[in-house]
């Protein structure tokens, strides 16, 4: 019997949210497990780098297999496993346990820049992601109200990446492996859940009264309609 892919859906008695559309919480939870496994393997192995790396990769592989079995998207699952393997290779290459978190630090710095630039050039990434999830392509961008709302909501995500960099950087510079692990978990699914909720509120409140919502962009007519008979 073939399993259907896991999808977050909104109960019939409440409005659809960004968490329902993007399902970001599950991915954040998955991403936090290999770092925890790394810290446990490193600690229990007497600060053994190979112990931490082996435990993290094994956890990532088991998690990937489970998600594929449950109908997860192969591309997303394999990207997650690849990220764990790259982090492990970096740590082995440098010989420093804290460098297992270096890829995460750099990716958050890059994400900060990407989100800010997307807002400045009026292609807010929140709109790009939600528009793709809804199959709208770029139609949302022709709705001035949605464009403005997505821009404001994107600032919430940009700030979340700034927060991660501000926390991770000093811990990484100080070689605080256990503190990095705690921060990695605390700033994964709890932060993602908070950002999804806050950005959703920002987007909803930015839309004018009577707007039909994210699924129904209001595209202004490009030219006036001529009266009949002309």
Explain how this protein is built:
With 230 residues, the chain is an all-alpha fold. The protein has one domain. Helices cover 67% and strands 0% of the residues. It has helices at 18-22, 24-44, 49-69, 74-94, 102-120, 125-133, 144-173, 177-186, 189-206. α2 (24-44) runs antiparallel to α3 (49-69), α2 (24-44) runs antiparallel to α9 and α7 (144-173) packs antiparallel against α8 (177-186). The longest helix has 30 residues, at 144-173.
What descriptive keywords fit this protein?
disordered C terminus; disordered N terminus; mainly alpha; UCP010219; 230 residues; 67% helix; 9 helices
Helix content: 55-70%
β-strand number: 0
Q: What is the overall number of helices?
A: 9
Number of domains: 1
Low-confidence stretches: 1-14, 223-230
Specify the biggest β-sheet.
none
Q: In one word, what is the shape?
A: elongated
* Percentage of residues in strands: under 5%
Question: How far apart lie the N and C ends?
Answer: 62 Å
**Class by SSE composition:** mainly alpha
Please give the radius of gyration in angstroms. 21 Å
Helix and strand run: HHHHHHHHH
- Average pLDDT level: 85
Keywords: Membrane, Transmembrane, Transmembrane helix
Transmembrane segments: 39-64, 76-93, 113-134, 155-173, 185-203
Organism: Micromonospora echinofusca
Protein name: DUF3159 domain-containing protein
Q: Which secondary structure elements does this structure contain, and how are they paired or packed?
A:
Elements: H1 18-22, H2 24-44, H3 49-69, H4 74-94, H5 102-120, H6 125-133, H7 144-173, H8 177-186, H9 189-206
Helix pairs in contact: 2-3, 2-8, 2-9, 3-4, 5-7, 7-8, 7-9
């Amino acid at each position: 019997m073939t399993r259907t892919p896991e999808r977050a859906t909104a109960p019939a008695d409440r409005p659809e949210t960004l968490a329902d559309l993007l399902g970001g919480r599950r991915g954040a939870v998955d991403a936090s497990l290999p770092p925890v496994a790394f810290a446990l393997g490193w600690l229990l192995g007497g600060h053994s780098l190979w112990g931490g790396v082996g435990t993290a990769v094994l956890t990532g592989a088991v998690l990937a297999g489970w998600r594929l079995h449950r109908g997860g998207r192969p591309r997303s699952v394999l990207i997650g496993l690849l990220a764990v393997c790259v982090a492990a290779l970096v740590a082995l290459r440098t010989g420093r346990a804290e460098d297992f978190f270096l890829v995460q630090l750099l990716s958050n710095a890059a994400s900060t820049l990407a989100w800010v630039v997307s807002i400045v050039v009026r292609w807010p990434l929140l709109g790009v992601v939600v528009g793709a999830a809804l199959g709208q392509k770029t139609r949302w961008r022709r709705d001035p109200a949605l464009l403005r709302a997505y821009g404001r909501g994107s600032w919430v995500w940009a700030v979340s990446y700034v927060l991660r960099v501000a926390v991770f950087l000093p811990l990484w510079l100080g070689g605080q492996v256990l503190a990095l692990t705690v921060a990695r978990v605390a700033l994964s699914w709890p932060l993602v859940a908070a950002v999804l909720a806050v950005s959703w509120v920002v987007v909803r409140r930015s839309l004018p009264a009577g707007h039909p919502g994210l699924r129904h962009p209001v595209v202004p007519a490009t030219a006036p309609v001529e009266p009949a008979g002309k």
